[in-house]
Specification:
5-stranded mixed sheet, STM4215-like, 26% helix, elongated
Length: 137
C-alpha cells in the first residue's frame, strides 16, 4: 500500500510548535496551512511539500520534505531569525507521534532568511527532511 503521511505530519508539526511556550508566546495559534487575508504577524505557514515513496516488498515508507515559512515585520531580521531558531529547536530530531506508522527521523535540511519584496516583511524558509514508515513492528 502506498502511504501519504502528509496530513498526520502537518498536524503533528503544528501541535509540536504550539506546545513550545516560547513559540506560542510569539505566534499564539498562528500556524497556517492557508494564510488568511491580513494576517497578524508573526506567524508560521506550511509551504511546499514533497512526498517520495520508498516501496519494495514489505516496505511502505516515505521521505517527505516539508517547508515551513516564518514571517515577521521588523526593520531587522533578528526577530525572524530568532523565531526560526525556536522552530528548528522544536522540530530538528524531534520524536513526533503519528496516529499511524512511525516517524523514523525529522531533520533540518536547510534554513535561510530573506527580506520580502514588500520591504517590510522578513521571511525564514525552513526545509525539513522527514522519514516515516507505515509498518509498525
Amino acid at each position: 500500500m502506498l502511504t501519504d503521511p502528509t496530513q498526520p505530519l502537518l498536524t503533528a508539526i503544528r501541535d509540536r510548535l504550539l506546545s513550545v511556550g516560547e513559540i506560542r508566546a510569539l505566534i499564539e495559534d498562528r500556524v497556517f496551512d492557508r494564510i488568511p487575508n491580513g494576517p497578524t504577524f508573526p506567524y508560521v505557514s506550511f509551504g511546499e511539500i514533497q512526498v517520495i515513496p520508498e516501496t519494495a516488498e514489505g516496505i511502505d515508507a516515505t521521505q517527505t520534505f516539508v517547508v515551513l515559512h516564518a514571517w515577521d515585520r521588523f526593520k531587522s531580521s533578528s526577530a525572524t531569525r530568532s523565531l526560526a531558531r525556536l522552530i528548528i529547536a522544536a522540530l530538528h530530531d524531534a520524536d513526533l507521534t503519528l496516529p499511524e506508522g512511525r516517524l523514523q527521523s525529522l531533520l533540518l535540511q536547510s534554513s535561510r532568511t530573506l527580506p520580502d519584496p514588500d520591504g517590510l516583511t522578513m521571511h525564514a524558509v525552513l526545509t525539513f527532511d522527514i522519514l516515516t514508515d507505515a509498518n509498525v513492528a
